[in-house]
Amino acid sequence: xxxxVRKKNTLAMFLVMVFMVLALAPSGxxxxxxxxxTKHIAVGTAVGAVGGALIGGRKGALxxxxxxxxxxxxxxxxxxxKYRR
Length: 85
Prior knowledge:
This protein is mainly alpha-helical. It has one domain (2-27, 35-84). It is 84% helix and 0% strand. It has two helices and no strands. The chain has helices at 2-24, 37-84. The longest helix has 48 residues, at 37-84. The termini are far apart.
């Protein structure tokens, strides 16, 4: 029991240290990337499916996934238009 608590504490401290290093990195290291269509659609699908499942069960998850995919595509298209200007 004590060993598992120490391992969890050690892991938590390691993750906190990694987060702090990444949070303190200057934004100059960041690259400007164009938006990814696949990522936007995948995230939209996942969020829509989870939301639909919570509201309407299995059928709601299917409807939510479709709506989320469409919304993800619209977000991608909006960001792509912003980069063109």
